[in-house]
Amino acid sequence: MSDILEINSIDLNARGVSRYNNKVVFVDGALPGEKVVVDIVRKTKKYDLAVLKQIVTQSNFRKEPLCKHFGTCGGCIMQHIDPKSQVSMKQRILEDNLFHLGKINPDFILQAIYGLDWQYRCRAKFSVKLGSKKSFVSIGFLERRSLFVTDINYCPILHNDISKLISPLREVISQLSISRNIFNIEVSIGDNSVIHLSICTSNQLSYTDKSLLLKFEKEYNTKCWIQRGKNQELYQISNNDRELYYSLPEFGFLMHFNVNDFTQINHSVNRIMVSRVLSLLDIKPSDVILDLFCGLGNFTLPLATKARKVIGIDINNDLIVRASNIATFYKLDKIISFKVVNLFEIEMNWFSKLEIFDILLLDPPRDGAFSIVKSLSVCKKKFLPRRIVYVSCNPSTLSRDVNVLVYECGYTLKCAGVINMFTHTGHVESITVLEL
């Protein structure tokens, strides 16, 4: 039997949220402000799941999706929402998490950082599946809540040069002897339009395989790598000098990286984000800055143009090595020092072993920085940094960590705002500023 619900909000999975019989109901495809007819398909003690049958009253936010794979492909779940409205909804999600999980509201909301609505994504991981007939290879993204691959020829959020590579990539993969043993293909494009591909497989290339990939490299201005073995090491197919880099033109840096390195997928928004973060840090020339989860040095190098000293720390040794090389190339090695530390397992007294620093920048993965903020909570106030800027990709772990910084360390939550790094997806990136 169908029910009629009014949708009040939206969650991180772009599901409409309603209440029915004193229980939360999640409705795929429904938007805030809509009245919808639904069928309840799953009931639990805390919530119900429903499927959308009919829209009785349609939201002004609703928009016709551009991609024909919308609803099947698991990549974009918000294409049916106007892009500006997506940002407003993500801002609401951020504020709700800070209030309900962090038990705090920011003093004011930062203006959101916007980018392109389409063709913004400079990095992706394609799933690969060989059909029953060896000549047919599916390349694309996993379907929603499924292990099936949505076979695509074009993706409107990918950089256009990556999209144009999908069909020829499918053709060359179908000819390889290892095609049945390819799990995925990571692809990255640099600001110089060079594309690198990392083919993850359990098999070695044959001579013919290598010849085919060398021809592909030459024809499509790419560089191919094979990722295999227990440690998933990368092996290059050729010694061609097509290097990847993204630029930070405000600071004059070219950031060279490898195809499997973590870098921001949206280069244009990343440039705006770096500039915004540096302005929010309020850096003085005499400052010592600690940059945790620094990776390739995306923030570390720009920080070194403003501060007396910057310490960059990350768990990934390969990234730290590359970051150090970039710093040396730009003659910043006397200002920057890099260290490899597992920041998820630091001791409570870890900060007492460091030199006193003035500002802290946090840019953790989705798990957040709980061990960091708990370690800060046992520091004497005179040793705490005067300002913390927290760049987050997960509102729930951010809110958990902010709760500790406010109620155990004594910080004030000055401001917070979203970064629309991933348009049309449910990912909520944000910047939060805390002050003593």
From TrEMBL:
Q: What is its EC number?
A: 2.1.1.-
Instruction: List membrane-spanning regions.
Output: none
Gene3D superfamilies with a match to the protein in the record: 2.40.50.1070, Nucleic acid-binding proteins, Vaccinia Virus protein VP39
In the record, the note on similarity to other proteins reads: Belongs to the class I-like SAM-binding methyltransferase superfamily. RNA M5U methyltransferase family.
* Coiled-coil parts of chain: none
Say which domain of life the source belongs to: Bacteria
PROSITE patterns membership? SAM_MT_RNA_M5U, TRAM, TRMA_1
NCBIfam families reported in the protein's UniProt record: PRK13168.1 (NF009639), rumA (TIGR00479)
Q: Where does S-adenosyl-L-methionine bind?
A: 264, 293, 314, 363
Q: Which residues form the TRAM domain?
A: 1-54
- Protein name (record): TrmA family RNA methyltransferase
- Active site residues according to the UniProt entry: 393
The protein's enzyme class: transferase
An example GO biological process term is:
rRNA base methylation
Write out the GO MF terms.
Answer: 4 iron, 4 sulfur cluster binding; rRNA (uridine-C5-)-methyltransferase activity
Q: Which keywords accompany this UniProt record?
A: 4Fe-4S, Iron, Iron-sulfur, Metal-binding, Methyltransferase, S-adenosyl-L-methionine, Transferase
- Could you tell me which Pfam families the record lists for this protein? TRAM, tRNA_U5-meth_tr
